[in-house]
Amino acid sequence: MPFVPPGTHLLQGAIDCHVHCAPHLSGRSVNVFGAVRQAAAAGMRAIGIMCNFQNTSGFAALANDELGDLGIEAFGGLIMQPTAGGVTLEAARTAIGYGYGPGTGARFVSLPTHHTRHVATREGRSPAFLETTFSVPENGRIPDPVPAIMELCAAKDVVFDCGHVSGREAVALTEEAKRRGCTRIRTHCSRYALEEIEAITALGGYAEFSFFVLTHATQVGLTHVDEEKHKIASNSVIQDFTPRLRAAGDRAIVSSDAGVYLLPPPVEAFREYLMLIESEGFTEAEIRRMSAENPARLFRIGGASV
Prior knowledge:
Blueprint lengths: L14 E5 L12 H10 L4 E4 L7 H11 L5 E3 L1 E3 L9 H9 L10 E3 L6 H6 L4 H5 L14 H11 L2 E3 L5 H13 L5 E4 L5 H9 L3 E5 L11 E2 L5 E2 L7 H11 L3 E4 L10 H14 L4 H16 L7
Parallel strand pairs: 1-2, 2-3, 4-5, 5-6, 6-7, 7-8, 8-11
Antiparallel strand pairs: 9-10
Protein name: Amidohydrolase family protein
Organism: Roseomonas fluvialis
Pfam families: DUF6282 (PF19799)
């Protein structure tokens, strides 16, 4: 009999909403079609394609058009980095409509990842670079045109993603997004304080925890916003995630954040991650909620709703 890696059953019906399989300045372990085929072979339900350089809704639409018979759904969206048009209402509007007809456009619109003051400071970027980055001021006032982008996400029923900002900023953004009518909000909480995670989820936001920051890929300089390479400093171990996952409760989401050449292909990375989570005492039902049910609700997979 062929060898079946332990934990393979945890992938059945799972959704990895954070896969970097699009073309990139850093090498990829798999392309878009390969990522979809491998996920389908593992019995997964969907994958979300992300890219720090461009809107991925077109890649997802193409994958669904070509590989739809595999029974798996791909979806994409926009990270509003400078190369993808920046933080503008027009870039968000274009991404939402970009595909092969109604319903094939972006499922999420994200504030920048590596073009935020929070990340650029951690990377040791120059003062001139920092001046160009996105941030929420200490007074919590959300800068324009973000409120209008939030209202667009609410009107089009797509996810507003807070991007890679600090916990303080994420709480302020979640509060404003809720005021603007957003019911689908994603935050990236791997390093946030417990009280920040609790505040975000109490407001109705989902808290995502990605495998990447637990891996050896953080030891290598990579490109994320331009050709300049930077490490994502991390001393994280799975035990650091456990109280954060518990704090997020029934609003937690887990993802691989894989696709870079230094890591196994996303399906294998996700299997390893789910097994790590299981080793921390989470039940199969809890893992399924974080890896299948919550992503389906957030991203409207198969018609699921929040």
